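Notes from hallway chat w/ T.B., transcribed later so I don't forget. T.B. wanted the structure written out for a chain they're using in a teaching module, and asked if we could keep both sequence and structure tokens in one place. Agreed to drop them here.
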Amino acid sequence: MLTASVLKWGYCMAYTEDDRIKEVQKYLRLDLTRSTELQDIVDLAAQLCDKPIAFINLLDEQANLLKVRSGMDLQFFEESMEPSATGFSAPTFCHYGMQQNDVLVINNALNDSRFDDDPMVHSGPKVRFYAGAPLIINNGLKLGTLCLFDSKPGELSDVQKKALRTLSRQIAHLLELELAKELLKRQVQETNAKNESLMKIAYIQSHEIRHPLTSIMGLINLIRDDAYLVNGKWLKMMTDAAENLDARITAIVNESLSDKDLKAIRFDKMVEEIEDYAILLLDQHGNIENWNKGAMLVKGYQAGEIIGKNFRIFYTDDDRKGGRPERLIAHAIAHGTAKDQGWRVRKDGTRFWGSIVITAIHNDKNEVIGFTKVTKDLTGQMEHPAVAGK
């Protein structure tokens, strides 16, 4: 049974399983399939160890998430590793592999009592051989494994084990590099956006400041050159110009970028606190990037348990097999929004009748970069709400 013990995964005592999951979530947001370096390493691992299947497996608290793969069609593996609505009932191969600090080799899973009830062994892909090397990053946390599978029993030589250890270290280094590149990219984008906004503000506001400032300077020059004597009328003109300048400066400060950021933060906080609707932010692939309190109440997951997973997890087995989530995404891409009603699945396995609206988010080039998904629980409004628990 999976626990939150720091001893279970064999890493530094300063960290807990919650720390590990939070770290994994950072990497799950990366599009690792674009990394040719990672793909080359996985291909090399399969070739050096002479195994038909190899992949990088990042593990959160309840699901195996395949990111980079090599070998035959992995559909059977993906279906076998896809979590049910209630989560995993037992550790998988890679959960055991991640407990080790060295390469775990299972020559024949049929002879290992840990997998007596594992569907991957007795049905589905019928796994016999497994080898996994943990992916340990610099802070000591384990993200998952570099693993090999085969449908027939097998072995690894000492040289092959050493190669697998070396390749797993290289993968861990590359993963950290990919995360650092993504964080740097975001920082550069944010900095560029702020600089662009500040330049626009400076350009616009400089013209509005220049007029009252020019008036004040002109009046002062006239007085300094003894062109006019200072009287009440002149003092009022200078006072009005100075007050106008002060008002413009105050307006600029009040409408500065930081103030706009505060408004955005307050708006995000308002959305976050809404309880009547489950509001989710999805990336372009349907993976969950953020959600509000209402989503937690309706669906039963904490944010740390769900961020990074695909929104397909909320659909029934029949809907997923029938491709319903994918059809809704495709409709939203084509028409801007997609509306639907149907049974959805909570974390505890119970069902609720939901009304859903998925809206596509576009960038300035009109490209779809993500989606918002709003769900309302209508179970209580149904004629026979008792069937919701079936």
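Follow-up for T.B.: The longest helix spans residues 158-224. Might be a good example for the class.
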